[in-house]
């Protein structure tokens, strides 16, 4: 019969742990916040709403965030009126 200690020993690695890589990456769906209003209005086919676009830009200037991650699942030319945003827009 197998003891509890044998099971624990089988499930654990021996020796030091190894870190394979450390780094940062910019995801392909990362949009610079200064360009985000243009990006948003372009993918939602709303470029004709210039007053709303200017208001959106003013709202962006108040926010301290540097980048927004738009989750469009690789289809930036879709016809949807919604864009999923990771983070907040104040």
From TrEMBL:
UniProt-annotated stretches for the region Disordered: 67-90
Pathway assigned in UniProt: Secondary metabolite biosynthesis; flavonoid biosynthesis
Pfam family, one: Chal_sti_synt_N
Signal sequence extent: none
EC number, UniProt record: 2.3.1.74
Ranges that cross the membrane: none
Gene Ontology molecular function terms on file: naringenin-chalcone synthase activity
Matching Gene3D superfamilies: 3.40.47.10
Single GO biological process annotation from the record: polyketide biosynthetic process
Source organism, top-level taxon: Eukaryota
Location of the Chalcone/stilbene synthase N-terminal domain: 5-60
Role, per record: The primary product of this enzyme is 4,2',4',6'-tetrahydroxychalcone (also termed naringenin-chalcone or chalcone) which can under specific conditions spontaneously isomerize into naringenin.
PANTHER family cross-referenced by the UniProt entry: CHALCONE SYNTHASE 1 (PTHR11877:SF80), HYDROXYMETHYLGLUTARYL-COA SYNTHASE (PTHR11877)
Protein name per UniProt: chalcone synthase
């Amino acid at each position: 019969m197998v003891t509890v200690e044998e099971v624990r020993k089988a499930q654990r690695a021996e020796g030091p742990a190894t870190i394979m890589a450390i780094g940062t990456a910019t995801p392909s769906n990362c949009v610079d916040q200064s360009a985000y209003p243009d990006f948003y209005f372009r993918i939602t086919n709303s470029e004709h709403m210039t007053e709303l676009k200017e208001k959106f830009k003013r709202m962006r200037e108040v926010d301290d965030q540097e980048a927004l991650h738009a989750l469009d699942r690789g289809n930036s030319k879709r016809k949807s009126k919604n864009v999923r945003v990771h983070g907040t827009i104040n």
